[in-house]
Write a sequence for this structure.
């Protein structure tokens, strides 16, 4: 939750002095932005997008973003299964990259470990490789750093952190930012695979700390162990995104639904808002979290993807093609709403958790 | 020390079960290599080089590498000065990138913090920006992740980890690997700025743990506090490297002297060895470390750069141009040795710490 995707602008500072953090972030991005002119890396976008783009000349752009999997690694450690966390790491990056219209090309990983544990590293690599294959990228390099005085985990000696960087290509005249979104456009949501890689800190608090469940507890509403449910790897949306980008759809924006939940929609670079009046029923994990944690529906829709991992904003005529593209990758998709003329506002009609209407601005939902 | 630059092949596993780690590393790289065909990211080099290169078509290559600053962050934390650690982070990456002949273009950083501390983040950003300016790259994105259960440091709440990824461009027919190195070529060393970002774990052990010095201790041989000496930011060699690459020198290889010390020379992709018969007197920190830590000269030359941060392997006729290129950036450089016909072997004549001759293979020096 408390990650700051700087290439993403959002700063979900749960537990952090927000004003101070926001000021620091502004100072930090101001300073970093001063590196843009003068160097060889001619930056095309501002901070705040899912990824940035470098002008390589001749109309060609190099897209780049970096992200980690956060405290989901602690779930992997508790379960003792490291085979899929690498998929999450690739997914968190390539799913961001496609949101600027780029085709992901290659990936490098950074693994910081408390101690080098060969079996664990092999499993992490397996997940990275599977993720890369799903995304159609190579893993061209990486770093394993053993940092016993800096990394800790759920058990002594078992800690690790996992992050990566994805690079892709995009024609400069085909960068996607959502600038073309207009009221009346449709919002299509593509299914997630559970909570993906955001909100794990809150989920750990609810299930493990507050409720005292073990990681192997089988909760009836989940039909499987908590650990396996929370470990479900993040869906990778590259193939369907490239399919959409290749067709002549009126595709305005792609939005990876990460730490700010449906407020990720407000990252479209147009003065619009969103009405979500047809969200699908959320997977059981979200109702379980909300009920066992006493988390209000508004907060749930701010922290979690609620079953929708990627949104496409598209002219009405493109809705079926988007749903088809997802279906060809075995994923359900739904027309979940419409672009409105209320800038920065996300309205949810009859949210599927409680049935209430919600209206949100500035990353905060309230009941209507 | 115990970092594994996978794009670098080396695996300096101090304190790690080496055989097991090596086997895991082989399995890991085998698995990751299987992502190379079939995707969009057409990989040009194998693992083991300083960076990898992706074929972008039309003869253009994208170079990429990722690295962190390791436990040098703990020195920054102990001193309470975070203004230069970002320079190290940029340096560790761009200095690798130039070693494949690439011009660094852009950089993204990954900061994992135990707690978001705005003042600390601003100082880290300052260093990143200064490093980027020295390297002529933009900082186009980044991630700050608050991971209180995964990151720790020298003091409760103050921990952080810092890594990054650099991307550059290189013409495919101008990739530098050292494949052209031949016996008789010269080795030119360019000065380092102290211990840079490798061997800090050992340095902390010697000075802080074993000897019990405080970080503010002023050691007479250093003429300044231990903390400031160990924090000296890594030199960035981009400008002189680009200068060398631009000229029609017989430049065979550039070698960033990192965790394996002078065994980094053996990363040239040619069946050659090295005779270093004119190493410069090392900066005082290295003698201090060797003497106070009782570290043999061979180990010192394996772990540390000994005052030489970058080596250029160049035809004899190019020696002066390399020294000139360094001088224009205000750095001393010396003709330190010669390429030999002993594959994988590094000989040091009259090493400047003890005067002994050393001969090394497989990352281990022994007195002759």
């Amino acid at each position: 939750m408390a990650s700051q995707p700087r290439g993403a602008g959002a700063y979900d500072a749960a537990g952090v002095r927000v004003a101070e953090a926001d000021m620091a972030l502004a100072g930090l991005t101001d300073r970093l932005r001063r590196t843009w002119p003068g160097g060889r890396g001619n930056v095309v976008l501002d901070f705040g997008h899912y990824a940035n783009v470098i002008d390589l000349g001749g109309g060609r752009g190099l897209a780049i973003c970096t992200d980690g999997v956060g405290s989901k690694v602690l779930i992997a450690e508790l379960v003792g299964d490291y085979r899929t966390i690498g998929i999450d790491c690739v997914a968190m990056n390539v799913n961001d990259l496609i949101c600027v219209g780029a085709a992901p090309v290659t990936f490098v990983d950074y693994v910081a470990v408390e101690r080098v544990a060969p079996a664990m590293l092999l499993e992490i690599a397996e997940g990275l490789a599977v993720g890369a294959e799903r995304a159609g990228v190579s893993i061209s390099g990486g770093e394993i750093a053993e940092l016993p005085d800096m990394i800790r985990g759920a058990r002594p000696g078992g800690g690790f952190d996992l992050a990566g960087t994805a690079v892709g290509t995009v024609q400069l005249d085909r960068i996607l930012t959502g600038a073309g979104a207009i009221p009346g456009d449709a919002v299509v949501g593509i299914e997630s695979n559970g909570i993906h890689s955001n909100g794990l800190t809150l989920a750990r608090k609810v299930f493990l700390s507050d409720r005292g469940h073990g990681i192997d507890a089988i909760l009836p509403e989940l039909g499987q162990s908590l650990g396996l449910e929370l470990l479900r790897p993040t869906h990778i949306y590259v193939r369907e995104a490239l399919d959409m980008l290749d067709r002549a759809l009126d595709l305005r924006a792609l939005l990876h639904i990460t730490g700010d939940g449906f407020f990720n929609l407000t990252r479209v670079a147009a003065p619009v808002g969103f009405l979500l009046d047809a969200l699908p029923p959320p997977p059981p994990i979200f109702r379980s979290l909300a009920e066992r944690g006493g988390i209000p529906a508004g907060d749930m829709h701010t922290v979690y993807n609620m079953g929708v991992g990627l949104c496409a904003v598209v002219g009405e005529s493109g809705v079926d093609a988007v749903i088809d593209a997802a279906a060809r990758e075995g994923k359900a998709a739904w027309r979940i709403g419409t672009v409105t003329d209320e800038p920065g506002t996300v309205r949810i009609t009859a949210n599927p958790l409680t049935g209430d209407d919600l209206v949100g601005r500035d990353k905060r939902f309230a009941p209507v």
Q: What stands out?
A: The longest helix of chain A spans residues 118-135.
